[in-house]
Amino acid sequence: MNLMVENGEQVSEGSGSDYERSLTTAVRTSTLIALGMISGVIGFLGIAVVLTGGDFSTEFGVLSIVAAAAAFFLCGVHFLIPSVITRSQMARLVAEGWKDRTDPEKIQRLCQVWQMQLIVGIAVLEGAAFFNIVALIVEKSFLSVAAIAVLLPLMLAKIPNRLKAEWWVQERQREIESQSGF
User: Fold this and answer.
1) What's the CA angle centered on 50, arms 44 and 52, to 5 degrees?
2) Contact yes or no for 37/122 (Cβ under 8 A)
3) Is the pLDDT score of 123 beyond 60?
4) pLDDT at residue 120 tops 80
5) Angstrom distances, CA of residue 57 to CA of 100, 114, 140
6) Following DSSP, what letter does each residue of 86-132 receive, concatenated?
7) pLDDT band at 16, cuts 50/70/90?
8) Which residue, among 147, 143, 146, 145, has the nearest Cα to 71 in the 3D structure?
9) 11 pairs with which residues across the strands?
10) What pLDDT score does 150 carry?
11) How far apart are CA 81 and CA 92, in angstroms?
12) Mean pLDDT of all residues in 108-136
């Protein structure tokens, strides 16, 4: 059983509700996608270690420097892009009219926005990790290993769970309601 806040009061939601189904589907799907992306990075990293023999150089080549710089830049971007996606989608929901916090279509849309912004954020980190793995294979530079060592934990921290998703959806509901004049 889940609790939602509605007009300052906690309301119990049954396990068969539209809210529950939408949230459960979004969390399951997002978790599978996130784990698949992380597994891809770990698998490719394993291949890189085998190809290089684990022999890394302390010299930094141009590709390693560019890949590490890209990783640094994309670490920041991975926070920015999801918030841009969220803001644009929230504006759409407000413009379409938000009549009721329990409207199944609106709840499903919020879950989809949560899922989209999460996956895009992880994908940005994944791209940076792959770039650094390619640089590692080509130049065997320890700089690429360091960049990957930063990117992978960030990706792992983004693995979704129900509590994070529920909090995010409820916060967005409050935002929409405050913008809609409730």
Assistant:
1) 100
2) yes
3) yes
4) yes
5) 59, 41, 6
6) HHHHHHHHHHH----TT-HHHHHHHHHHHHHHHHHHHHHHHHHHHHH
7) low
8) 147
9) 4
10) 96
11) 17
12) 95
| Burial (CB count within 10 angstroms: exposed 0-12, middle 13-18, buried 19+), residue 96 | exposed
Q: Residue range 59-88: average pLDDT?
A: 94
Please name the residues in contact with 129: beta carbons below 8 A apart, sequence gap of 6 or more: 41, 45, 71, 147, 148, 151, 152, 155
Look at residue 163 and tell me whether its pLDDT is greater than 80: yes
For residue 175, give both structure tokens.
């935002």
- The 10s digit of each residue's pLDDT in 17-42 is 778 888 999 999 999 999 999 999 99
DSSP annotation of 13: E
How many Å is the Cα radius of gyration of the chain? 20
Give the SS3 label for residue 57: strand
* Residues contacting 17, CB < 8 A, separation 6+: none
Strands 9-13 and 2-6: antiparallel
DSSP character at residue 59: S
The residues facing 99 across adjacent strands are none
Sequence letter at residue 136: L
Find out whether 48 and 42 touch, Cβ atoms under 8 Å.
Answer: no
Residue 108: band (very low, low, confident or very high) from pLDDT cuts 50, 70, 90: confident
